[in-house]
Specification:
With 370 residues, the protein is of the alpha/beta class. The protein has helices at residues 25-37, 44-57, 73-84, 101-114, 125-138, 145-161, 173-176, 190-200, 213-222, 238-249, 262-276, 281-290, 296-303, 313-323, 328-335, 349-364, and strands at 65-68, 89-95, 117-122, 166-169, 226-229. β2 (89-95), α4 (101-114) and β3 form a beta-alpha-beta unit.
């Protein structure tokens, strides 16, 4: 496949377009949006104002912000920083039944050593399993999106429950802003996920923390809950963050980005490349190239490493198949289904793009937090 001459995105992303110099549209779009989404090179003044505002609005409350914890690098480092800044966070975790042993240990060490209260939203396993199997039957690359979607829903659920006005996330645009929609869709499109579940699922949705545009409007403009990507205001590097949390919290390494979840690890390291020809490491490493954190040669050498990095594929495969209650033959039939896209099903993509454009405009005018 043709590969971008600047980053390492290739034609496995069907949206890719190359200019006369072999530079792809993802690079250009990333750089165009970068200044609208983050404070380039960090902005201590903006950060100080945000911290003081959070403290002021949370005065006389048990907590002044909500943070998500997954046991991964970003969320663990974020927990360290909010405590360093003198904030009083409530940690929220979405338990979908796929947490690895290492992720559980990392979460426990983080909240205990930092003295942070933890609230866990445990979804009904049978219900969530039915939703995940619906996505498998839909045969799109979006199989792990139900978890990502629910994490956002859990953060708003916790903020609303405890009347907290700020959600602080570990999202970092410089490392996660470049991701093809064809690789992963549905993070904010509940009607899309709901439609797939209605078509392929069986059980009613009762405990799953979904969120919709109308709910987000209610939380944002009625409840006045703000989401802040605090790492966008910090000169964040994964290497430095990993050293910090390892030394201070005894954090344990689990492999590639987001591999703290067994299902995510199996999906990204096996299903996506084997069935869909997608290696999500390309997007992550391209983010780092475009934000100047690594060289292209280094990114290409990273791709040559095994996707499982010491984890056993056969062990994960047997665990996933058994937990989803498939036979090996049934699971293979799922993998052999013709490849589909979110565009093959009813979705709100065009509507969400208009809203996203409006949000980015408001961010560029400093009306909304970047």
């Amino acid at each position: 496949m043709k590969i971008c001459n600047y980053c390492i995105m290739d034609e496995s992303a069907i949206e890719i377009v190359f200019d006369e110099n072999g530079i792809c549209n993802f690079c250009k779009d990333f750089k165009n949006l970068l200044s609208k989404r983050i404070e380039i090179n960090g902005n201590q003044n903006s950060l100080n104002k945000i911290i003081e505002k959070i403290k002021k609005d949370g005065k006389n409350k048990d907590y002044d912000c909500v943070i998500g914890v997954s046991g991964g690098v970003d969320s663990t480092f974020l927990a360290c920083k909010v405590k360093e800044f003198g904030l009083r966070p409530l940690a929220a975790h979405f338990d979908n039944g796929w947490d690895s042993e290492l992720s559980v240990i990392n979460i426990q060490n983080t909240v205990q050593k930092l003295g942070i209260d933890l609230i866990t939203n445990v979804v009904d396993w049978e219900e969530f399993k039915d939703l995940q199997k619906s996505l498998l039957k839909a045969s799109t690359p979006d199989g792990e999106v139900p978890s990502d979607h629910a994490v956002t829903g859990t953060l708003y659920w916790a903020a609303n429950k405890y009347n907290i006005k700020y959600i602080i996330t570990g999202l970092n645009y410089s490392e996660e802003g470049l991701l093809p929609k064809s690789w992963s869709y549905g993070h904010i499109d509940w009607p899309y996920l709901k439609g797939l579940h209605k078509k392929f699922g069986h059980l009613p949705i009762k405990t799953y923390p979904y969120h919709t545009i109308s709910r987000l409007f209610y939380y944002t403009f009625i409840k006045r809950i703000k989401r802040i990507g605090l790492l966008n205001y910090i000169n964040f590097t994964r290497e430095d963050a990993t050293k910090l949390i390892t030394n201070e919290l005894g954090w344990k390494q689990y492999g590639w980005k987001h591999h703290e979840s067994i299902y995510t690890r199996f999906w990204q390291a096996y299903v996506l490349p084997e069935k869909f020809g997608i290696d999500k490491r390309r997007a992550h490493l391209s983010n780092l190239i475009c934000s100047g954190k690594i060289k292209r040669e280094k990114a290409l050498s990273e791709l040559e490493k095994g996707k499982y990095q010491g984890h056993q594929l056969n062990q994960d495969m047997k665990y996933v198949i058994k937990k989803l209650e498939y036979s090996e033959a049934e699971f293979q039939e799922i993998l052999d289904l013709p490849i589909k896209s979110f565009r093959d099903y009813k979705n709100n993509y065009n509507y969400h793009q208009k809203i996203r454009g409006l949000i980015n405009y408001l961010r560029s005018k400093n009306i909304l937090f970047k």
